[in-house]
Design a protein that fits this description.
By secondary structure, this protein is an alpha/beta fold. The chain has 18 helices and twelve strands. Strands 5, 6, 7, 8, 9, 10, 11 and 12 form an eight-stranded mixed beta sheet that branches. Strands 2-3-1-4 form a four-stranded antiparallel beta sheet, covered by helices on one side. Helix 1 crosses helix 3 and helix 1 crosses helix 5. The chain is globular, with a radius of gyration of 23 Å.
């Protein structure tokens, strides 16, 4: 346990320094080649959990300590151990003893008595400490104060549920590759392996319990992909048809590109500004037996990549705050700043205006984000429609909600969709 605690503490520290949790865990695991798979999984669980409930855990720790530890790694270790004691219901004495040992591993001069005493004090005063932690929005909801304030203003009746969903473990949903399997056939394959799942759409299955992708039958053979149900609604809304030229802008890591190619025989261009992330698109398409024209370029800089031939369909899955997927990426809550939302909105505007030029008359563009903030969503689309008299808002299927805003819930993350049609000149 102590090695998992140590690695999780280091990961949390690096996130609080402004780095990505996923990237830092990868680096930490590379630096520990003798780490067992069980330890790796435990460290990842602890890091994700401590960041998921960081607001509450910090509010508790501040009550237990007059000042932060000199070594910030010890403070992060205490957050990880508090997470175990409160949310994982681990054996208390084992958590405390292993945390003391992990502290010494992090720093030979670590205050062992402080670590031991603080964690035992939490166990004795748990109810009172948690009650006082809830006095602040961050301590109560484990989201930054500015985030809570934005949601309270925009969703006065729903904000608490949105915040609660942001602290849950996400579901694991699969998309069956209809070119190689059927939903019901793959469901039977899962049952044959003792894996429980249920249908949640034409090609989607939700697992009763998440598991590593390498355990999924036929995953390497391209029978199935992991993709949230909310993200899977993009392709049915855009409805590409055989023979059409289709652009997937900001395509990496390629889930929606693959879904487009699975749904129709199209000429697909997958665009992304990051060549390294395009490699992931290529790997996903190769595994699924699909092909697309991969282009590296800035979606807003047409001279970098566009050949001048119009597209019949455009999927504009633009960069955003990712505020709708924080339960899947809990570091996002602590990496974002209030002013970032306006910055994302300006970038989205530039991309949307540029991509509109590539769309054929009578074509359709689907604007998509994984955000719940209106500045990036309905307000962005309203502003676009004012600037472009040749654009019209098209109705969405009921599955996407009346206004296109999907709030995170038990079956899907938070997403926004707007379908825009270009009037014939």
């Amino acid at each position: 346990m102590r090695e998992s605690q140590r690695l999780a503490a280091l990961a949390v520290c690096r996130v609080l320094e402004g780095r990505s949790l996923q990237d830092e865990l990868k680096l930490l695991f590379q630096g520990a080649p003798g780490l067992r798979s069980q330890q790796r999984a435990a460290a990842q669980d602890l890091a994700y959990g401590a960041l998921r409930f960081l607001g509450t855990l910090r509010a508790v720790l501040e009550q237990l300590m007059r000042s932060p530890p000199r070594d910030p790694r010890i403070g992060c270790l205490l957050l990880v151990a508090l997470y175990q004691l409160q949310y994982r219901h681990s054996v208390p004495h084992a958590v405390v003893n292993e945390a003391v040992a992990a502290a010494v591993h992090l720093n030979p001069h670590a205050p062992k008595a402080l670590v031991n005493g603080l964690l035992r004090n939490f166990l004795r005063q748990r109810a009172e400490l948690l009650s006082r932690a809830a006095d602040s929005p961050e301590g109560r909801y484990s989201h930054p104060d500015w985030w809570v304030a934005r949601l309270r203003q925009e969703y006065p009746l729903q904000y608490e549920d949105i915040l609660d969903q942001g602290n849950q473990r996400p579901p694991m949903t699969l998309r069956v590759n209809r070119r190689r399997a059927t939903r019901d056939g793959y469901l039977a394959m899962l049952a044959g392996e003792g894996m429980e799942a249920r249908p949640v759409g034409d090609v989607a299955l939700m697992l009763a319990r998440p598991l590593p992708v390498e355990r999924l039958p036929g995953f390497c053979a391209g029978l199935v992909s992991v993709q949230d149900l909310g993200a899977q609604w993009a392709v049915p809304l855009l409805r590409p048809k055989d023979g059409q030229r289709v652009l997937d802008a900001c395509a990496a890591p390629g889930g929606k590109t693959a879904h487009l190619l699975e749904s129709a025989d199209i000429d697909c261009v997958a665009l992304d500004s990051d060549s390294g992330r395009l490699d992931r698109v290529r790997e996903n398409l190769d595994r699924l037996g699909l092909q697309a024209n991969l282009q590296c370029g800035d979606a807003a800089a047409l001279d970098q990549w566009w050949d001048g031939k119009p597209f019949d369909r455009v999927l504009a899955d633009v960069p955003c705050s990712s505020s709708g997927v924080v339960r899947r990426h809990p570091d996002i809550k602590w990496l974002r700043r209030d002013e970032d939302i306006g910055r994302y909105a300006r970038r989205q505007r530039h991309i949307l205006d540029a991509l509109w030029r590539t769309l054929a008359s009578d074509g359709k563009l689907l604007y998509a984000t994984c955000s719940v903030f209106p500045e990036e969503n309905r307000l962005q689309v309203a502003s676009f429609l004012e600037r472009h008299p040749d654009a019209q808002s098209l109705s969405l299927d009921a599955v996407a909600g009346t206004d296109g805003q999907l709030l995170p819930g038990p079956t899907h993350d938070g997403f926004f969709y707007a379908l825009l049609g270009k009037r014939t000149a």
